[in-house]
Input
Amino acid sequence: MKKDFNKKCYEKISLIPRGMITTYAEIANSLDSNAYRAVGNAMAKNPKLISVPCHRVIRSDGSLGGYALGINKKIQLLNTEGIIIKNNQVVDYKNKLYRFPK
Output
């Protein structure tokens, strides 16, 4: 049975190490897709918010994007992993960016 797009997204974000972030675009690209918004929609529907860490997914410009439990919770979760947020941006975003292996 073919996996649906959301499940593929959840599998990908489960690979992001603690203390790292990735982008909606990185996830889409790793799935050979340009469907960045569909990745965002999958994150919004994530049934296992903490164990499938969609809080580690941000926008390509380094800003946070949304989170089902609210932006303050996303910031709190990222802070506990050593990710620093200033003015809704991930500090040192390029060095914290997780890229999926090909």
Remarks:
- The chain has a mean pLDDT of 93.
- The beta strands are 22-23, 57-58, 85-86, 89-90.
